[in-house]
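Hi R.,

As promised on Friday, here is the backbone we talked about, encoded as structure tokens. Could you run it through your design pipeline when you get a chance and send me back a sequence?
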């Protein structure tokens, strides 16, 4: 909270001097997200996803899923509901306009190599680049913190992310075939992809 307050102060004092992304309509709504997701969505943490550069269609889906309690997250549910009330398109456009700086979390080079060797099974949906495919409803994995990627894969494996969702049957079935250690390697690999 202290961090957030200092950003608010910076904003107040910077006033009209600050140009660019902070002028966007969604910028003020996005400020509150900084406390967890980092300023301008550039998460520095291992567990919080980076929102900078997120595709608007996927952002909106995630917000709707959290608000509906489909993707269960006690942290996200109230913020998702607030975003839907204040105008999800503006916030989506704000984060999409931020260039993604890949996660600064240190990666083990041997884990990356093991993950690379196992990553072919992901490219069918996420693409060789890992950047996803909007037409299939598949998000970008690249540069996300390894801890976040790993957690989400484990949630799929246990059917705890959007339980029972027919659209996600295939990805969950795949995760169940992957040992947890290899899930960590895959997370390291996709985090390392630029
Ligand atoms: C209290 C901390 C916290 C705050 C504040 C917060 N989030 Fe989150 N957010 C999280 C956590 C934790 C997750 C991962 C939850 C999970 O396991 O699905 C997350 C996940 C997300 C995701 C999913 C990303 C993906 O790749 O699927 C989006 C989108 C998101 N948050 C948007 C927002 C927005 C927009 C705001 C501000 C209005 C916000 N968050 C504020 C903690 C927070
Ligand atoms: C059959 C298609 C398919 C395959 C194969 C697949 N995925 Fe996905 N993946 C998806 C879809 C669809 C989503 C979006 C889920 C949603 O909308 O909630 C997703 C989401 C994810 C997420 C969550 C991203 C975020 O920002 O929250 C991670 C992590 C992930 N996949 C990792 C992988 C890895 C690693 C592999 C390979 C081992 C893989 N996926 C293979 C379809 C697939």
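Update: got your reply. Pasting your designed sequence below so it's all in one thread:
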């Amino acid at each position: 909270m202290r961090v957030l307050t200092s950003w608010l102060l910076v904003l107040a004092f910077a006033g009209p001097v600050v140009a660019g992304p902070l002028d966007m309509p969604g910028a003020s709504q996005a400020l509150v997200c900084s406390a967890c997701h980092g300023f301008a969505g550039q998460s520095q943490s291992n567990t919080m996803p980076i929102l900078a550069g997120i595709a608007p269609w996927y952002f909106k889906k995630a917000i709707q899923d959290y608000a509906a309690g489909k993707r269960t997250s006690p942290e996200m549910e109230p913020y998702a509901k607030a975003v839907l009330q204040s105008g999800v398109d503006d916030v989506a456009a704000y984060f999409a306009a931020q260039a993604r700086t890949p996660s600064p979390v240190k990666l083990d080079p041997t884990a990356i190599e093991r993950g690379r060797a196992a990553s072919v099974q992901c490219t069918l949906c996420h693409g060789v680049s890992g950047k996803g495919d909007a037409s299939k409803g598949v998000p970008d994995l690249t540069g996300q913190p390894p801890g976040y990627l790993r957690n989400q894969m484990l949630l799929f494996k246990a059917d705890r992310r959007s339980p029972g969702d027919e659209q996600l049957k295939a990805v969950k079935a795949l995760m169940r075939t992957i040992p947890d250690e290899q899930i960590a390697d895959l997370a390291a690999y996709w985090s390392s992809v630029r």
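One thing I noticed while checking it: Residues 32-33, 35-37, 48-49, 51, 59, 62-63, 71, 73, 75-76, 79, 83, 91 surround heme C (ligand 1) (CB under 6 Å).

Thanks again,
M.
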